[in-house]
Structure formats: C-alpha cells, structure tokens
Design goal:
Length: 280
C-alpha cells in the first residue's frame, strides 16, 4: 500500500522510460520537477470548503515523523501546509495509523491523505489521487575517482552490488544484462562491498543511498553516477495525495496549488531542507 516496503532498442526504450519529467538545478543540485515548465496552473476560484483536514502517519522519516519536541514534521507535513497557504485555507494535519488513512477519507473524518499511499488498483477503489509530487528513483553509486560511464555497454562485465530479490536487481537483469550482478542480503552489505572495493558500482534506492553517502558509514567514499531511474514498472508510480473518490474539486485545487508552489520555488525550498544531498 505504501513506499516503505519498497523498489539494444529494448534497452534504449527502457532507459528513456526511466528519465524524469524534468529537473531544475538549484545551487548545483537537481530538484525534481514533475510539472511542465510551460504549464499555467488553472485558477481555483472560490472554494466550497472552509479548510483541508490532512491525515498522515508519524513513522516515516523524513516524510512524516515526530521531532524531538513531539511535533509532527517532515517533507509531507511542510508540503501540506504550503498547499493550504497557496489556497488561502486553514489546515489541520493529524497523524493516524497507516490502515486508517483511507478509511478516514471514506467516512469523512479527513479530506486528504499525504503519506505515500501507493496508486494501485486496490487503492483506486477507495481514493482519487493528485498529480505526483515526488518519485523515489533508483540510482547508481560509484567510488570517488573511478571514471565509469553509466550505460549497459560501458558497465558490461562490471561488478554491480545490489540487494538480492529487489526491484533494483530485476531492473539490472532486464536492462543491464551484461553486468556481473553481485546480490547481497541487505543494503548495508551492498554498501560495504562498494566502499571496500569489492564492487565497481552499487545500484539501489536513491533516497536511502543519499542518506548513506551523507553519513559516517560511507566515509566520503562514493558519489552518485548517471541519472535517476524512474521506471514505474519497477519503482512505483510515485507519491501523490489521496482524496475521497468523489472529491474532484479538492483534487483539482490541490493540483493547482502543487503547480504553483513548484513554479515559485517553495517546493524546491522544502525539498532541499529535507534532502540536502538531492537523490536526483
């Protein structure tokens, strides 16, 4: 239901499908942008509701979690507040158990859920979704100083560490069939293999790898290489805000607000606050 448990001509087509919609650099960092640069946000007009009641969880950092003072915070929380500010509406954000999020929409205890609820056939029966505001890409990581082009041909016969049984391993098997896949039981083992020079590159979840690269365990050994991989068949459709199935008016208002805060830099500000090493 969510992202926590997650991740030749044919090869060329697969690589194109993995390309992000757009990315805008900010101070040398790539900021994901899933809105067309020439698109104009549709005017919302007079809204028929007095505010937006958001629900989320409190156990998915850095998206939604309790800070040291016990306050609900995170990227999703700031994004929800920015949406309400853009629409000129009061905003309440309440943490609830994961299994209660869509139920709360259905019985009118909440207007919108912002918690990484996956867009699937199952959830489509319970909710409609806003435009995607973030995708969690796969990325390659290599050791500093190693000049390695990231392509199926250039990585042929290279040792690529990956978590065994993951979507990332399946992606390599599909689009990088000539690499020497090194499956590891955990992400920690795959990271250690790269850091110690037992692998030439590591392929995995970009968000998790960004935090590893910034942490002490990586010992400044490695950097991202190549672009983000966003193929939804392997890595999901992305993160969107869920509303009740019949609440198209709120969904359109949220979409307009998302486009506006992407255009004015508010989205980038919040993204860099929580992801100072961009995983794009």
């Amino acid at each position: 239901m969510g992202y926590r448990s997650a991740l030749t001509a044919v090869v060329a087509a697969g690589m194109l499908a993995a390309t992000p919609v757009a990315a805008q650099p900010a101070g040398g960092l790539a900021i994901p942008n899933f809105w067309r640069q020439d698109a104009q946000a549709e005017p919302v007009g007079q809204l028929p509701f007095a505010g937006i009641r958001f629900v989320t969880t409190a156990d998915y950092p850095p998206f939604n979690f309790l800070d040291a003072a016990g306050r609900l915070t995170g990227f999703n929380i700031d994004l929800a507040r920015a949406i309400c500010d853009e629409l000129g509406l009061p905003c309440t954000i309440q943490a609830r158990p994961w299994d209660d999020l869509l139920v709360a929409l259905g019985d009118d205890r909440a207007d919108a859920a912002i918690a990484g609820v996956a867009m699937t056939a199952e959830t489509a029966a319970e909710a409609r979704f806003s435009d995607v505001y973030l995708k969690l890409p796969a990325r390659f990581v290599v050791r500093r100083g190693l000049r390695l082009n990231i392509s199926p041909d250039d990585l042929a016969n290279r040792r690529i560490a990956v978590v065994a049984g993951s979507a990332h391993e399946a992606y390599l098997q599909t689009y990088f069939p000539r690499v020497r896949i090194q499956p590891h039981a955990t992400a920690l083992e795959a990271e250690s293999a790269l850091r110690l020079g037992r692998a030439d590159a590591l392929f995995g979840d970009g968000l998790q790898l960004a935090f590893w690269l910034e942490g002490i365990d990586a010992a400044d050994c490695c950097i991202f290489a190549g672009g983000p991989y966003l193929d939804s068949r392997f890595f999901g459709e992305g993160m969107a805000i869920a509303v009740a199935p019949d609440d198209d008016e709120l969904r359109h208002a949220i979409n307009a607000a998302l486009a506006a805060i992407a255009a004015d830099g508010t989205y980038a500000e919040h993204y860099l606050r929580y992801f100072p090493l961009s995983f794009y």
